[in-house]
Structures are given as C-alpha cells and as structure tokens.
What does this fold into?
Amino acid sequence: MQADHGRPRVVIVGAGFGGLAAARALTGSGAEIVLIDRTNHHLFQPLLYQVATAALAPSDIAGPVRSLLRRQKDTTVLMGEVTGVDPARRVVNVSDVGAIDYDTLILATGAANSWFGHDEWARYATVLKSLDDAAAVHDRLLSAFELAESRSDPEEVAALLTFVVSGGGPTGVELAGAIAELARFTLARDFRRIRPGGARVILCEAGPRLLAGFPTSLSGYAEHALGTLGVEVRVGARVEHIDGDSVTAGGETIATRNVFWCAGTQARPAASWLEADAARNGAAKVLPDCSAPGRPEVFVIGDAAHFAGRDGQPLPGLAAVASQQGTYEGELIARRLRGIQTAKPFRYRDRGTLATIGRSRAVVVVGRVRLTGTVAWLFWSLVHLFLLAGFRNRLVVYVNWSWAWFTYGRGARLITGLTSPAARAGKTETAATHHDESQPRQLVP
Amino acid sequence: MQADHGRPRVVIVGAGFGGLAAARALTGSGAEIVLIDRTNHHLFQPLLYQVATAALAPSDIAGPVRSLLRRQKDTTVLMGEVTGVDPARRVVNVSDVGAIDYDTLILATGAANSWFGHDEWARYATVLKSLDDAAAVHDRLLSAFELAESRSDPEEVAALLTFVVSGGGPTGVELAGAIAELARFTLARDFRRIRPGGARVILCEAGPRLLAGFPTSLSGYAEHALGTLGVEVRVGARVEHIDGDSVTAGGETIATRNVFWCAGTQARPAASWLEADAARNGAAKVLPDCSAPGRPEVFVIGDAAHFAGRDGQPLPGLAAVASQQGTYEGELIARRLRGIQTAKPFRYRDRGTLATIGRSRAVVVVGRVRLTGTVAWLFWSLVHLFLLAGFRNRLVVYVNWSWAWFTYGRGARLITGLTSPAARAGKTETAATHHDESQPRQLVP
It folds into this structure.
C-alpha cells in the first residue's frame, strides 16, 4: 500500500486507548490515517472481569473500531496482524496484507500476559486480557460447578470447587470478589448435590499488600471487604508452581482445578521491531515526546512504552496514560504538519484511580479524596456508565447492570466455548518480568 | 448413580424443547427426575440466526437449564455427554460421570447437521445449530468484509464479498435476508475501500420452491421479499460441490469464500443406542405413545423420533412437536406412577407456523389465516417476545430489538472467535439424508 502523493500518511498500530485517542486527535490534520489492529474492536479492558462473570455482555464493553471512527473520512481501519517494522524503509509489514508505507508511525501495541518465565503454566491457568479470555474464564468458572455436581470423589469435588486467583492488582481483586459472589449468591440454589456457597476462593499476591498502586489504607479496606465475601487473601504468596491439580504459592500447595492468572504483563514487541532499548518488561524506552531515540518519526505509547515520569519511575500501565499519550501525539503530529516543529514534553495528569470489590463496594482515590464502600461503588458505577458511552446505548448497559444487580446475574450463565481454556491461554506470548498489575485502575482515561 | 429406594427414576437425555417440557410435566409426580444435556443451557434455536447476525445476545435466547428448573426440587440437572444406553440393564452411560440407572427413559436428543454424505464440506461451510455455531457464523460474516477491505486482488475481493446460503427452509431464508441487510445497511458506511452494499447474497434450494412447508403463495412472497433485499434466489439448485474457493449448485459454479449450510439434519443416535428401527434420517421409529417398540419404559421424542402422523407422513422437526411430545410423555409417566396404564396416542396440534424475511417482513400461517409483510412481522415479534420470557427479562430483549431495529444492529459487531469456522463446523456428526429444513417454524411450541 503506497502513500498518497502529497498527503503524508500516519500509520497507527493498535486500536486500544492509545491508538484510538491518537486517531481521533489526528483527524482533520491533513494526514491520511491508517489504523491497524489484530481484532476489529476497541475493548474497554477495565470491565473485562464483568464479562467474565456475566454481568455485562461483550458488546457492552467493546465496539467495532470502524464504527467508532465512522465519521473520520480521512481514516482507514485495517484488521491485520503486524509482523514487523522496517524503520529504515519506513514500512510496516502486515500479515496477509503486505507492506504499508508510512511517513509517521505510532506504535500503541499494548501489553500481553506474562508468565514470568513459566510458559508451561499457560496450559493450566486462564488469563483475562481479551474478549476471548473473558469467555474462557466464564466457561471455566461455570464448568467447574457443573463437573463438581456430576462427580462423587470428595477430593475431586473439593478441587473443582477451589478457585485460585494469582495477582492482587485491580483485576485480581475484582475477579476474586466476583467469583465469590457468583458462588455464594448467583448459583446458591441451582445445584442438588454440591453446595456452591462452600466453594473456596483464594487470592494470592506476591507483594506485601493488595492494590499496591493505592494508598495503604485502601489496601486494608479491600482485604477486609474481600474477607466478608469469603475470599481467603494471601499476601507475600508468590506463585511458584502450577499444574493441572494444584497451585503452590508462598510455600503452600492448594489442590485446585481452577487457576486465574492476573499477575503480570509483558509489552508487545514494539522495541524489538525498532531494535530499540527496552526495559525489563520489554517496553521500548522513549524520549520525553514519546518518540523512539534517533527516530523522530516513530512514536511508542501506552503499555508498549517505557516513559520515565518526573520521579524517574516509569508511568503505570493504565488506560489513562495511553489515552493521554495518544492525544498528545496526535496533536504533536498535527502541529508538525502545520510546520511547528517544537513540542512540550508529555506530562501525565493523574485524574484519579478506582477499583471495585463485589457488587456494592469499591475504593476510589481522586487527588486527596479517598472513598470506600457503597458511596465509592455508586461513584464507580456512574463514572463507568459515562465512560462506556459510544459502545452501545447507555440504557442497555444500565438495564443489564440493574438486572445483574437485582438478580445476581442470573441471566447470562451459558457455557458456550468448546475450546479448552488451556488452548486459549496458549495464545499468549512469552514471558519476562512483573509489570503493571499492582497499579490502580484509571478513573478518566 | 443408583436409584433411590422407593422413588422411581426418570432419566431424560436432552434439554431441548422436548426434554424440558417432559421435565416440567413430571415434577411433583413422585418420580426422581434426572435431566442430562451436553451443554448447560436450553436454546431457543428458532432465533439463532439473530444471534449470528448480532441482533440479539446469546443470553436473550438461551437460559441455564438449572436456572429454568430451579424450583423443581425433585429434578437433578447434569451436564454430560451420553455415550450410550444399555436398555437390558436400564442404564445410561455418561462420559466422565459413569452409569446412571433408570426406571423410565426419555430420549430427546434432537438432530445434528447433515452433510448428505459429504463430510469434507464441513471444512468449508459453516452451520447454524448451536450458540457456538452462531458465533462462528457471526465471526465469518464480519471477517469476510474485514479481509476484503485489506485485499487488492479484485477476484479475491469479489469471492470474499459473495455469501452463499444452502437451504431454502426458514433458517436459510432468515439468514440470507439478515446477511443482505447487514451488508446493505449496517456496514454500508464503515469501509473506505470496498462497498459492502455490493456484496452478493445467493440462496440455493434443491427443491422447487422456498419454505416448502408453507403454502405455495407464501413461498412466492418470500422469494419476492428476498429479491427486494438484493438476495439472488436459486431454486432447483442442489449443492453438488463445496471447496475453499467456490460452491457448485445446480450446475453453476460460484466463486465464494463464505458458505452457510442450512440444508439438512440428521437425528442424533437414539435409534442406534436402542438398536431400534430407524428412518432414513436416523430417527427412531416409535409407537403411537412415542415408546420404542418392545420397550414400554423407553420413549423417544422430538427430532430424534420418527412418529407417523395421521397421513402416514412423519411429523415435522419442529419445536412445537418436541414440546407437545415432552408434555404428553411427562403426563403419561405421571399417570403410570398413579397406576393408570392406559394412554391415548399422541396427537400433534398445529397451532401455526411462521418465518421472517429481514427486519420488517414475515410470513405467518395460523389455521386458514395467512399473513405477509409488516403485519406478519409485528405478529412474529410479539409472539417471540412472549416465547422468550424466562431466559431474561423482556425489557432487555425489547430494548435490544428496538436498538437493533433503529440502528441496524450497530452495537454488536465484534469478531471474537479465533477458532476457525472449519474447526467449529468439524464438530458436527456424520451425515445421511435430508430431513426437516424445508419445514416451517413452529408458532407456539
């Protein structure tokens, strides 16, 4: 695909929060915009656990990229897998499509799951990064109860009714709370031979406390709130071994058939495509305007980038960071097209963070304000109802939430996937180091 | 699993319309009821094409069997694959669960897809029988447009934008209409390089007319209505060959990458389990009370059974037939438990049939009344809104439908399945003869 004569082409790889924000900021700048993603949809990942536990439908939290950018006539959306970049020739290679020329490139490729060097765990543990993963988690949860109902060996039944979540960041906390509620409320009266309310839910965190990105007092609240739902919280319990029958964490071996992996991420290969310096988690080290060193026409943003903040620490892997960087980059490129070459360095504005525990508790930090409990949860609901606009009409999401709230999600407990969770999990990439799951969730991207 | 002392056990295999109706009719009879299904949900199959084309969510048309029967304390629901029956020992064998004793057995195992002896077509064509199939059809439809947008060879683009539906029964008619609407309305403005409205949709039917189970005048109306949506209808065009690049039907070879197979069904193996006489499509021939000849404690109902109607013809493969047989059987067994051994033979009551073409046309037959067009469509909507109650609240379905109607289904166009359609389609069973797809859809099950 050759560039138009006269119209500079900006190629954006990745339609997550960063790539989408960049495309929106660039429209009308005179550039031809090409946005490439492996899937056809933008995903509101922070609510993925709600799809995994059937409170929301996939279409409530995801929207086709084409549809979201329908009015941008200067933007072409392509579904395809980018296999590499040739920065010398200024070409992006897309599987089955071929080479796409660019004048400016934005890599917003995000992060994949990380197994910390234990790729074999992918056979046994289920991750939660994509809509497919959410379906796999959902099917695995419900199948465990179904299998337990049909088995007679008490040890097998106990292992089937033990759920281990690895990782005490927001995803792990939210998932553990949701599993406990599913067992104790949603499924409570559906079975004749097993007692779903007796299921064990164990949350293992390698660090000293849950929600490490939040103030310490909120970590304590989260642990307490999970305890009231019956979740057993183990801090300082790094997962050392996973197989089909058990998990070993912090020296303790737990018999379980259900392991959910929310423990770490690994940046997708933007750095290796550019042959650029990378941090331990694979993220490409970038300059203060997010460009790759020595390549002012190439930018890396979001989870794929290692951006040193004012304190020297890298910015957390949050939707808010990616989104702000995308907007910043789009505006920077638009200014360049008008002949303005200078730019202020990127600065992240923290507008607040939040996480939920179960269906009526949350923790919220906005500046110096800290909220917990039902007030925080109501605040969380309103913010997310607002943020989800654009995927579907708000009425549908509101009705779905209300229905799930009053009925504990009775409606959507269908096991549909016949693909094994292991096969799905096997799609994730190779692993390296701990990254961002201890970070809080963004409030406003 | 041994039967309770003193409580006779009725085992029902299959939680479709037949099995569910039987379980409902049996509750309170004093029997212990065990309902076994391969999935955890009851599916309202007549609306599956709406999930395939994203007008409805899976949870709108399916509900967990446990949840539907939650109040029946005498009923145990098991998810498992029945591998065989030993009628001499009165045992059902369930994969991974073991042997389950019965005093009375109801086989309501339904029908699978039939390839008419061409199992190799499963590699290229997508079927529409389960929620997984609906997801595969949906992903295949949307992926075709995405791939076409990224390709430059005009012949490849044309083959990607040609959709062939095999089978002119209600499923084929409804699917072809929905694909045409998806291309012409929903996707019309989303692409930059291709024109989705120029996509070809071709419906091939081996017989002389569409909707063979309906009066001839309604077949003509359906053909006309499909024509106004741009669907090319080929009657007398039996599919002779399918490969990855083309379909040959009625002597004509059509270059296409997208084939949807709605042409025939094959009864699941109740007859072979019982070593009983079967019709050409594999359905077990049954006596006037639906029992297997020589085995008064074993009943076969629904699509798995070949029940000779008053005219000597077998009853059609409709939800209404299965449902009425299930209720009849449940009541018959309940009477036997009270010591009443005599029973009137089963009689099917035809309460009406209907099918839709696109989002505002339908055909309806109720007794001598025949409706077409918008009036028929409104009637169809009301009936289905009523029938779907129990899966989810009606408000959600109503909002989903309204939303899809006014926006042409903008909300739910997400490609999520990474499983290939061929792999999914490969799950279907081996093939034999034409069965019920020329039959109309039931009005009231």
